[in-house]
Specification:
The complex is a heterodimer of chains A (114) and B (112).
Chain A: E1 4-7, E2 10-13, E3 19-25, E4 31-37, E5 44-50, E6 53-56, E7 64-67, E8 73-78, E9 87-94, E10 104-105, E11 109-113
Parallel strand pairs in A: 2-11
Antiparallel strand pairs in A: 1-3, 3-8, 4-5, 4-9, 5-6, 7-8, 9-10, 9-11
Chain B: E1 5-7, E2 10-14, E3 19-24, E4 29-37, E5 43-50, E6 55-58, E7 61-66, E8 71-76, E9 85-93, E10 100-102, E11 106-111
Parallel strand pairs in B: 2-11
Antiparallel strand pairs in B: 1-3, 3-8, 4-5, 4-9, 6-7, 7-8, 9-10, 9-11
Classes of the chains: A mainly beta (114), B mainly beta (112).
Amino acid sequence: DAMVIQNPRYQVTQFGKPVTLSCSQTLNHNVMYWYQQKSSQAPKLLFHYYDKDFNNEADTPDNFQSRRPNTSFCFLDIRSPGLGDAAMYLCATSRDTGAFYEQYFGPGTRLTVT
Amino acid sequence: SQQGEEDPQALSIQEGENATMNCSYKTSINNLQWYRQNSGRGLVHLILIRSNEREKHSGRLRVTLDTSKKSSSLLITASRAADTASYFCATDETGANSKLTFGKGITLSVRP
């Protein structure tokens, strides 16, 4: 089945220690998104790629970066995680960024910062 | 910034009852989407309604959209325990480059 896969499902890192979360998709979608979701809150868009074009949200901290080496994979790098970065990180894809495309989400990676 | 606001924040019903959840938003939209999220999982797309549509059905789901009131409702009929989840509305604001903005969500509990 075509899907969005996130690894690992649970990640524990130390304060200040860089961490990378990965996302892959078999849907061959042009767009890949990264969201941060804290407990009982709305998913918050960090950035997205349309093909190789990177689109950062204005309020995404510089601590968060992303790479998309090919259509299938996208990575979220947190350079120096703080306690406030503990959250669920959701990867999503969509066929295009036109107005009427639904997004397909992976299961998420829950990040704990100790 | 948060666009959608769901109401109520939490809803508990008995299996077999209908569940109605509401979403209000602030600006003009291209479409409104509803997603479901089971505990600790990713979101699953349920239904998309375009700004020129008033009502849409999908199985046990019925979505309405009132652009004059900037509101939408999601009705789940004949609820099941498996419908227990959080439900989010997400809006695609006009001119926002198709970015989806999610509300905080409604927690639905369906008691067996």
